[in-house]
Amino acid sequence: MGFPADDWPDGPPLGSGSRAEAPTVVLGSPGGGRLLPGQGSTEAAAPGWTGEQWQRAYQRVRLTGRAYVWLNLVEQRLRALLDQLLRPVYAPAHGADWVTAAAGPVGEEWVRRAAAVREVSRRKGYLLDPADDDPLVFLTLPQLRELMVQHWPCFEPYLDDRREIELALDELEVARHVVSRNRSLSATVLAQTERAAARVLGLLDGRPAASAAPPSDVIEELVAGRFADVAAVHADRVRLQRDLPVEDLLEGARRLDAIGIGLGMLCQNFTGKRLVRLASDGCRARLLFLNPASSAVRRRERELGLGRGELSRSIEMNIMHVRRVRARLRDPGGFEIRVFDETPRFTAYLVEGARVPGSRRRTGDLGVVQPYLRRARGIESPALVLRAAAGGGEDGEQGLLDVYREEFEGVWTDSRPIN
Description:
The chain is of the alpha+beta class. Helices cover 46% and strands 11% of the residues.
C-alpha cells in the first residue's frame, strides 16, 4: 500500500523545464511496519509480544496440547485394533494393498491420498520410525472410524456398544478440527474431549462405558521425569482430591507408607471397612502419626490458633480409628502404627503397587506430599503429586519420590510403635 506522506513541494509543476521532487512514500502493511527516515516522529508498535499475549499463547498451548495427547491415544488405539482384526482378513489375499482392499470403492480415494502422502514422507525422510511405514498410519481418525463401521461384524465379538463408541467419537470431532488447525480450544471443550477420549479408550478395551475411566497420569507421565518426579501441583488438598481421589491413590497398592500429624486425608476419607479390605487384599501399611502427647503438638496448636488439646484429641481419634482396623485383620503385622516426636515438616502418602487392569493409575509408584505451613491447616496446604519416572530419573539422578521415601525411613527408625 502506498500513500503520500506530505503535500507536493513548492516549485514548477510536473512536466516543466526543471525537475520536480517526488513525494515521500511509505510501503508496508496497514497498521505496522518500519517508518522511513524523514516521515515524522510517529513511533511504530513494538514487534514483540506483551506479557499478556505470551500468557494467552501459553494457555492456548496447554489446552490444545492436552487435547492432542488424548486424540493421539485414541487414534493409536483404534489403528492397532484395526490392524489386529482386519489385517488377517485381507492381507493373505491382497498383501501390502490390504488397506485399499478393506476400504473398498467407498474409501478408495482417501486411501490413495494417504498412499501419496506416505510416498512423499518416504522420499523426504519424514518416516523416523520404521513402524510408521504402514498405510494405516496415514489415515485420519474419521477414516479409521469409517473402516471400523464398514467392518463392524469383525469388531462386534470384542466391542459391546457400537452406538456408544460412535457417539464418543462424534464428541471428539470438535477438538480434532481445532487441534489440527491450531485454533483456540476452550476449557469446556477440553473437558468434553478428555471424557469422550477416556470413554472411547475404555470401550475399545472391551470395558463397559460406565467403568471406562482414564489413566489419571496420561498427561503427567509425559513430564514427570523432567521435573524430578513432580507430575502435578495443587493449591490445596481440595483441588488435589478433585483430580486424584484417595480411592485412585490407593487402588491396587501393595504398600502404603504415610507420615503426618493426623493423616486426615486417609482417616477421614476412607472408612474402616475399606481400610480392612485394602489390607486384606495384600497392602502392607506403615502409618506414622505425630505423638499427641508431644510438645510439637502444642506448638502446632499455637500456630493454628487452636485451643489447648484440640489437635491432640483429633490425632487420638484418628489413631483409634486405624487401631480398630488393625484389630480386625488376620495379619496385624502388616498394618503397623507408630508415633514420632519430632517437629512435623510435611505429610506424605507414598504408594507402591502394580497397575490393576482397568485402573486409572498406570504407574506403580506414586506419592502425595504436602508441606506444613505455619498458619495453614493441612487441607489448605499446597500438594505435590509425585510419580516415578519410567526407567528412572534423568542421568540416574534421584527423584523427589525417593527423597521422601528416605525421609520417611529415617523418621520411622526413630519412632515408637503403638501396641
